[in-house]
Amino acid sequence: MSQTSNLAVDPEQAPSNQSASSVISLENEALVWSLASSEAFEPAPIDINVSRAVQIELQPLHWNNYDTLPTSIKLTNTGETVILSARWNGEGPSLVGGPLEGRYLFSQAHFHWGKTALDGSEHTVDGYRLPLELHVIHFAERFGDQEAALAVPGGVLCLVYFFNLKSKANRFIAPVVEALEKILLPESHTKLTPFALIDLFHPFRGEYFLYWGCTRNGLQVAPMLWMLSRTQEPLDFCQLKQFNRLLDRRMRPRFAHQPSEVAPSKGRHLFHVNPRTPMAVSTLMIEPPAKFSKTRWLVDSQRVDWNSPDACRNYVRLIREHLAEKLQRNDDEQCAESETTSGSQG
């Protein structure tokens, strides 16, 4: 069982990252689900800001079969978005743990982008949009299929990943980006060489944001639970621009559509789940996912706790040490080369 927390009923009246005097003495999972009836039909997306998030401890999430190779992967331009779907022999990917009641099965993943790198994401972070946003959709196994789950609060779960620009291409998203030229027209699709889905994004057991909200498509309302990773995925500018070539049903560039309007978050609960520190100062973390540990950029490769007040000072110190070591290695190599040359001439 997870820890019991004392959380404010009204997050607007609570001090940042602290509980208020009016508390709910429920286990944390029960607290999350107690908000479904009142907040699941509030509109999404919202602005994500760590300063207004209430910290909460939940059981870790468990990721099952995300590293299992699917038998097929299909990429589709619907005219509204790009959807990635897949099939497996046997059991497909699923999530359990955290605030989830039962097992949630992978359904599909889709992307959101804009005309520029400044208006791509659906959610805003501290009031600003990011270049690209990935939604990974799951539905509760107990409903049998996504269509039945859509009508019930918590029947559908949306994992959110933000992408930020880097100078180096992301090799993990490359198979998707390279296939976009085959689906420029709406209602077109193509098959990809199968790869493990976890290559496209990353698992997280904690350090994520959680809230209730719904999306609307005409008369259809889909109340769902949202989990947003604090760790960003990278991509370079050339990869981002490939999404801009896709056409909608009116044969216009998809980026001509305006991003969704961000809904007011006043009076709604935004949870910061299993934070590493009680004093997080940035909404998103700068550290890249672990899968990039062998291919990190210099700016990302320093082991710095970015939530620490001394983060910038430690970062500068580590960069200086790194450059000094590199300079020393170059000097040593030049000396060794000079000695070798002198010896051969003698």
Note down, in words, how this protein is organized.
This protein is α+β, with helices and mostly antiparallel strands and 346 residues long. It folds into 2 domains: 19-281, Alpha carbonic anhydrase (Carbonic Anhydrase II, Roll); 296-337. It is built from 6 helices and 17 strands. It has helices spanning 28-34, 36-39, 146-149, 174-179, 237-243, 311-345, and strands at 7-8, 23-24, 47-48, 54-56, 61-64, 72-77, 82-87, 94-97, 104-113, 124-125, 132-140, 156-165, 188-192, 208-217, 220-229, 233-235, 271-273. Strands 4, 5, 6, 7, 8, 9, 11, 12, 13, 14, 15, 16 and 17 form a 13-stranded mixed beta sheet that branches. It is globular, with a radius of gyration of 23 Å. Residues 1-25 have low confidence and may be disordered. It comes from Anopheles farauti. Residues 16-274 form the Alpha-carbonic anhydrase domain.
Write the layout of secondary structure elements.
Layout: E1 7-8, E2 23-24, H1 28-34, H2 36-39, E3 47-48, E4 54-56, E5 61-64, E6 72-77, E7 82-87, E8 94-97, E9 104-113, E10 124-125, E11 132-140, H3 146-149, E12 156-165, H4 174-179, E13 188-192, E14 208-217, E15 220-229, E16 233-235, H5 237-243, E17 271-273, H6 311-345
Structure keywords:
346 residues, alpha+beta, 2 domains, Carbonic Anhydrase II, 13-stranded mixed β-sheet, 6 helices, two-stranded antiparallel sheet
Would you summarize the structure shown here?
The protein has 346 residues and is α+β, with helices and mostly antiparallel strands. The chain folds into 2 domains: 19-281, Carbonic Anhydrase II, CATH 3.10.200; 296-337. It has helices at 28-34, 36-39, 146-149, 174-179, 237-243, 311-345, and strands at 7-8, 23-24, 47-48, 54-56, 61-64, 72-77, 82-87, 94-97, 104-113, 124-125, 132-140, 156-165, 188-192, 208-217, 220-229, 233-235, 271-273.
